[in-house]
């Protein structure tokens, strides 16, 4: 097992770790605390539940990386909090946005590592337009019920801090091409976006529209880069979303109530975004808030000094 490297931005993951349990195997990278693979030992052999990438390579399309202290985008990199104007670095110059926070290309420190679990942490640090010290942890655990991912965020500073989090997970139904699979989302509304991938209006019901995946629908030809909300939760307080292959096997992504949003994105070669070796691929991204939440205030979290937030999601196989 490799040891995590010291923090440095914009370089590929070089330290990799593995956990196993309950018939599941997960690969974790130190850089971005990234989930670089998840597979299940099915009756026909190992079945991939996520798109994968190799240690020593940059995660394609930010696959499997943590998005914090905000997910998605902030318009013009600007927001006002507690009456103070903030100007973040523009990290998405094509659209003029600050995108996906500060930690997806930095190395995280391994706190502990056992056969079936690993925990990593990072201090977000101070950045241009960001005077809020935060400490993040993530724990990956595999067992009979699949993968469980537990995130915490702690305000280590002396003033309240805005906060949001997401996870850029790509789901997969074994080796079946995406266009042969069906998708079901437990989501009642979607947020329309403009050409800069920023909200262009309020949330709209999905019923009867092209965004209605409350019943399984084939993904052949479907284009998505859409924030969904009004997530329907089961009795255990979790929303569940399913990608299934033609033979009924597949992957369930679930999220606890802390993640009230789900961004669905289809990588498509025809749109200039191809997943290497796979072409079309599906990201289902649990998020605490929608794009530009630091300006809209929609589901924006505020952590008081010393306050800790915890959120949980996970994945399991459909046999």
Question: Can you walk through the features of this model?
Answer:
This is Aldose 1-epimerase family protein. The protein has 319 residues and is mainly beta. The chain is built from one helix and 27 strands. It has one helix at residues 293-296; strands spanning 16-21, 24-29, 35-42, 45-48, 66-67, 73-75, 78-81, 84-87, 97-99, 109-114, 117-123, 134-143, 146-155, 161-163, 166-167, 170-171, 182-184, 187-190, 204-205, 217-218, 225-231, 238-244, 250-256, 261-267, 281-287, 301-303, 308-318. It has a nine-stranded antiparallel β-sheet with strand order 10-11-12-13-27-23-22-17-20, with no helix packed on it. Strand 12 (134-143) and strand 13 (146-155) form a beta hairpin. The two termini are 31 Å apart.
Question: What's a concise summary of this model?
Answer:
With 319 residues, the protein is mostly beta strands. The chain contains one helix and 27 strands.
Secondary-structure element order, N to C: EEEEEEEEEEEEEEEEEEEEEEEEEHEE
Largest sheet: 9 strands, antiparallel
Across the major sheet, the strand order is: 10-11-12-13-27-23-22-17-20
**SS-based structural class?**
mainly beta
CA-based shape: globular
* Percent of residues in beta strands: 35-45%
């Amino acid at each position: 097992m490799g040891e995590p490297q010291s923090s440095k931005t914009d370089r590929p993951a070089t330290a990799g770790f593995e956990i196993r349990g309950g018939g599941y195997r997960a690969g974790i990278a130190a850089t971005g605390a990234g989930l670089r693979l998840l597979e299940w030992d099915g009756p026909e052999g190992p079945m991939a539940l996520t798109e994968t990438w190799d240690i020593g390579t940059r995660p394609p399309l930010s696959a499997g990386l943590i998005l914090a202290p905000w997910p998605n985008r902030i318009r013009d990199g600007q927001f006002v909090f507690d009456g103070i104007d903030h100007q973040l670095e523009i990290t998405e110059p094509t659209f003029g946005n600050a995108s996906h926070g500060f930690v997806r290309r930095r190395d995280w420190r391994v706190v502990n590592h056992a056969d079936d679990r690993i925990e990593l942490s990072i201090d977000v640090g101070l950045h241009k337009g960001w005077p809020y010290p935060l400490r993040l942890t993530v724990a990956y655990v595999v067992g009979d019920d699949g993968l469980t991912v537990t995130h915490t965020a702690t305000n280590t500073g002396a003033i309240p801090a805005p906060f949001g989090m997401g996870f850029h997970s790509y789901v997969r139904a074994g080796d079946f091409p995406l266009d042969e699979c069906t998708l079901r989302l437990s989501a009642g509304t979607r947020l329309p976006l403009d050409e800069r991938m920023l909200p262009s209006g309020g949330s709209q019901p999905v019923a009867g529209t092209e965004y209605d995946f409350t019943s399984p629908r084939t993904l052949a030809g479907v284009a998505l880069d859409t924030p969904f909300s009004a997530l329907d939760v089961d009795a255990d307080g979790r929303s569940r979303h399913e990608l299934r292959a033609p033979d009924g096997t597949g992957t369930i992504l679930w999220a606890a109530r802390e993640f009230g949003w789900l961004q669905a994105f289809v990588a498509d070669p025809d749109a200039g975004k191809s997943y290497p070796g796979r072409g079309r691929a599906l990201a289902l991204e649990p998020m605490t808030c929608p794009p530009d939440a630091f300006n809209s205030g929609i589901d924006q979290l505020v952590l008081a000094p010393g306050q800790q937030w915890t959120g949980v999601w996970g994945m399991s196989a459909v046999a």
